[in-house]
Amino acid sequence: MKQGKSKIDTYSVQSATDMASRIGNDSLKSAINWLNDTKKKERLEKCECKTCFYIRGKMGGQAITDRPCGICEEEQTYGSTCTDMMCLPCGKKNELCVHCGADIRLRPRRTYK
I want to staple 43 with a disulfide (CB 3.0 to 4.6 A). Which of 53, 60, 68, 72 is the partner? Predict the structure, then answer.
């Protein structure tokens, strides 16, 4: 594979610098929110761990996607290919992140309920 030459000029350097700066600042804000759990009530209502709520991007393809809950196996329908591992009721009952399956409070566990 061969890629073409990138155009490097004053505008491209300014644009790349601005983008890199914004990404860094956004990452820092996300990390601070993760540490302080600034939206804990909202996060727990959505039944997500701090990492999924504050750090991980939830990007998926544009396709209606069906996936069974990893616990009760009830079919769930999502508006994209970015799906959750389990349904909200199972996540709340087991205190697990619906998106990734981690403990909702990131506590170490040997088993789940």
Answer: 53
Maximum Cα interatomic distance, the chain, rounded to a whole number of Å: 58
Instruction: Give the separation between CA 15 and CA 9, rounded to whole angstroms.
Output: 10
pTM (two decimals):
0.79
What is the residue whose two structure tokens read 């403990």?
A: 103
Closest CA to 90 of 67, 109, 113, 106: 113
Number of domains in the chain: 1
Spatial neighbors of 64 by CB under 8 A, at least 6 apart, are 77, 78, 79, 80
Q: Note the pLDDT tens digit of each residue in 23-80.
A: 999 999 999 999 999 999 999 999 999 999 999 877 677 788 899 999 999 999 988 8
Average pLDDT over residues 97-112: 88
